[in-house]
Amino acid sequence: MAKVIDGQKLAQALRGDLLARAGAIDGRRGAAPGLAVILVGDDAASAVYVRNKIRACDAVGIRSVCHRFPSSVSNADLLDLIARLNADSEIDGILVQLPLPAHIALDQVLEAISVAKDVDGFHLYNVGGLVTGNTVFSPCTPYGVVKLLESEDIAIDGQNVVVVGASNIVGKPMALMLMARGATVAICHAKTRDLAQFTILADILVVAAGVPGLIIPQMVKTGAVVIDVGINRLPDGRITGDVDFNGVSAKASRITPVPGGVGPMTVTMLLENTIASAERALSRGERVAENSASERLF
Ligand code: NAP
């Protein structure tokens, strides 16, 4: 029977450390790490995600500011706000909750965010950095999966990894991050013929398709590590992943549950990115101060 990887427990442990780091930043610069969240329109799911993120910020000592706009907001108004947040020294992270209404130029909005404050990791520079190995911020969900694997001491180097799902926010960055850590990676998507012929080879199987029950035991190698990123709401209201949890548990060595696996890690990585951003800003500020002090001496 597979060991269940407890994402909730790991997230709690990491958040304890983040609370201490946020307190240290506040002590050094007299301002807590700051996250600006931009929410457009009245999508119910987006509102819930934003509420959860704000609550998580409060719990670790990050000051969050939510900017709400009606769905009729113009591109120019959003770009104007982002420019002001980019220049605000007390804002360390800027997050635009997706999806945005169709009339907004998503690429323009994401690329207006300063690379140094792009805590979601969606700016083209940070996306490209995943390919070249010098990204500033890793996107939160795949980053959370890497942390889960590391916390379980699961080797990535030299392993066969199959990622099911090829979206820009989960599947593709996930594949790049695991390849950067030495895995041999196959990426599958909706047009993949005979998905099982790929998944059966995986030492580590990461599933992010948004299809409940997509992965059944016959598709999984005995002893594989199975990470279920999927979050699906069933007609009866229950939340489930993409993996047949009970069936696959009998075959895998380790498995993440839904809920309680990857989900809590995603928000935790947003907190981690925001605090890391504040730490970088602080050391940049201290270096500038040191340099100008030594210029005055000579
Ligand atoms: P998405 O943008 O809809 O992408 C889904 C991907 O899965 C696409 O690449 C699609 O292929 C592929 N796919 C769809 N059906 C498939 C099938 N039958 N076989 C193989 N591949 C299939 O979704 P996403 O944003 O990446 O999210 C994926 C899932 O993860 C969703 O359930 C979402 O709710 C969940 N999620 C969870 C978290 C978390 O924190 N746990 C965070 C983000 C997302 P094509 O590219 O060919 O269309």
Annotation keywords:
10 helices, 3-stranded parallel sheet, 2 domains, 6-stranded parallel sheet, binds NADP nicotinamide-adenine-dinucleotide phosphate, 298 residues, 46% helix, alpha/beta, Rossmann fold
Question: If you had to describe this structure to a student in words, what would you say it looks like?
Answer:
The chain has about 300 residues and is of the alpha/beta class. It has 2 domains: about 90 residues, Rossmann fold, CATH 3.40.50; about 120 residues, Rossmann fold. It is built from 10 helices and 11 strands. Helix 1 packs parallel to helix 10 and helix 2 crosses helix 10. The longest helix has about 35 residues. The protein is globular, with a radius of gyration of 20 Å. NADP nicotinamide-adenine-dinucleotide phosphate binds next to helix 10.
Strand order of the largest sheet: 1-11-8-7-5-6
Q: Count the beta strands.
A: 11
- State the distance separating the first and last CA atoms: 68 Å
CATH architecture of the largest domain: 3-Layer(aba) Sandwich
Q: Kindly give the count of domains.
A: 2
- CATH class value of the largest domain: Alpha Beta
What is the third-level CATH name, the topology of the largest domain?
Answer: Rossmann fold
Shape: globular
Query: What is the C-alpha radius of gyration, as a whole number of Å?
Result: 20 Å
The low-confidence runs, each spanning 5 or more residues with pLDDT under 50, are: none
